[in-house]
Input
Amino acid sequence: MVQISNKRLDDYISSKLSSLLFSLLGKKKNKETFESVIDSIFSSVEKIMILKRVGIIYLLLKGIKKFKIKSTLGVTTNTLDKYSLIIEKNPLVYNKFIKVIQKDKLTLFLEDFLNTLYGPGTPGVDWSSARKTQFLIKRKKEQGL
Output
């Protein structure tokens, strides 16, 4: 039986990791079918374990600090070190991750640029929604998700 930590994943982070898994393994047209197949093959605990592993590899390749990954995903330092070693031994295996990271960097850059143009302090912009957007961009930069 698979063992995972007692720390529950945030729903937002879980959905982002599911989307990441789909973008790595699935086809672009049928996300619902892909998720139903994954749900039928794996138990909920196994699915969480797989999502956390994919998240660890993704965030490590993205350059997020280990203590942020540890607090975001609820994993141990030993697990992070184990996957760091795996990535160091086989860096070419993770090309698909690198492609997703490059798309995310471009998206984050454009979001940040638009927030600079239409962020808080810009005339005619709702400050409350602009602050929320600014907070989400900051969280994406720090946590990677």
